[in-house]
Design goal:
globular, single chain, about 140 residues, mainly alpha
Length: about 140
């Protein structure tokens, strides 16, 4: 069974899927989605960090974009990349699966980070500090 702190973190982070009409993506996250999309679907914009360097190789690694390559490839193979999901926010709004799936990955990664912060704080500072540590980590 999953730990209660993890389930609470997952529920809190899942609000980001339901409430905002848009979301903020830091540069690293945006580039990972764009790079994965270009790799799987054959079109997109690659910044200079992803182009071959004169000395060979690239400036950035493929580990984080590779997560989204797997997701996008799955969506492509199953034909879900051409569909739209209906997501309940306050009203029913169509959400593109190619947008929703990476956001779900972000929710899980954030919830795991919150849970790890909770556990670390409990071990280092005692169980009374864990809720406060997670609260600070969320904001």
């Amino acid at each position: 069974m999953l730990a209660k702190p993890f389930l609470l973190a997952l529920a809190f982070r899942s609000l980001s899927l339901l409430l905002p009409q848009t979301y903020f993506q830091p540069d690293e996250y945006w580039q990972s989605l764009e790079v994965a999309h270009e790799h799987v679907f054959g079109y997109g914009f690659l910044t200079w960090e992803w182009r071959d360097l004169p000395e060979g190789g690239r400036l950035r690694g493929w580990i984080w974009p590779g997560v989204f390559v797997i997701i996008y490839r799955f969506l492509q193979v199953t034909g879900l990349d051409q569909t739209r999901l209906i997501v309940r926010r306050l009203l029913e709004v169509g959400a593109d699966v190619k947008v929703l799936m990476p956001r779900m990955v972000g929710v899980v990664v954030a919830a795991v980070t919150d849970w790890a912060t909770y556990r670390l704080s409990s071990k280092l500072l005692g169980s009374g500090s864990a809720a406060g540590a997670v609260s600070f980590a969320c904001w």
